[in-house]
Amino acid sequence: MNWVRFIKHFFIVLVLSIVGSTLLLGGFGFLLAGKEGMINAGGWGLILGIMGVLSSGVLFALNASFWGDYAGRFGSAWLKKETEGDKDQHREQEDYSHWKL
């Protein structure tokens, strides 16, 4: 995992979501109540933006592409084990078939 790239993307998402929610709600507040409405709604946008960043940051950190495809490799190994079985799963198992050679 490239931590520098992850931190850079995380802060870009953080800043864009906070600024976007503040501007969106501030603009809506300005349309409704003028300058005071813009300040109040902008404050709410800042609060909601920070709360949204916390949840989106967790989802961003769990994104499998940033973990070097670990989830894909683990999933393919598990699927192969479930479909084909382990190497030693039949080692000490009795053969009760009628088709013995």
Task: Describe the structure using short key phrases.
mainly alpha; single chain; rod-shaped; 2 helices
Can you describe this structure?
This protein has 101 residues and is mostly helical. It has a domain at 18-83. It contains 2 helices and no strands. It has helices at residues 3-61, 70-84. The model has no long low-confidence stretch (mean pLDDT 78).
The whole-number mean of residue pLDDT values reads 78
Q: What's the shape?
A: rod-shaped
How much helix is in the residues? over 70%
- The count of strands amounts to 0
**Total helix count?**
2
Largest sheet, described in full? none
Proportion in β-strands? under 5%
How large is the radius of gyration?
27 Å
Please give the alpha-carbon distance between the first and last residues: 52 Å
Q: Find the structural class using helix and strand composition.
A: mainly alpha
Poorly predicted runs: none
H/E element string? HH
